[in-house]
Design brief:
about 80 residues; mainly beta; 5-stranded antiparallel sheet; 3-stranded antiparallel sheet; about 45% strand
Length: about 80
């Protein structure tokens, strides 16, 4: 595991803020490889924002950036979320 990499549980508060509910147990399907898994299992990288990556294929699932009192969320890497 990369020293800068965390799992989805590390951003549980941010995910709840964005989605309005606890999301680490929500199941997402990766658009790249089709694997379905809980958000808590995703690999997380923090920098200017947060990037959640599929732990199986390393595809980007979601990007979250907070800037100027706005939160921008890109979920293009998810085929489904439930």
């Amino acid at each position: 595991m990369d020293a800068l990499m965390l799992d989805g549980n590390a951003v549980a508060g941010l995910l709840e803020e964005v989605f309005g509910r606890e999301m680490t147990t929500a199941v997402g399907t990766c658009a790249a490889c089709g694997t379905s898994a809980e958000f808590g299992a995703a690999h997380v990288f923090r920098s200017a924002g947060v990037v959640l990556r599929c732990r199986w294929c390393d595809g980007v699932l979601a990007k979250i950036v907070e800037a100027r009192a706005q939160t921008c969320v890109d979920l293009r890497g998810l085929r489904g979320l439930g």
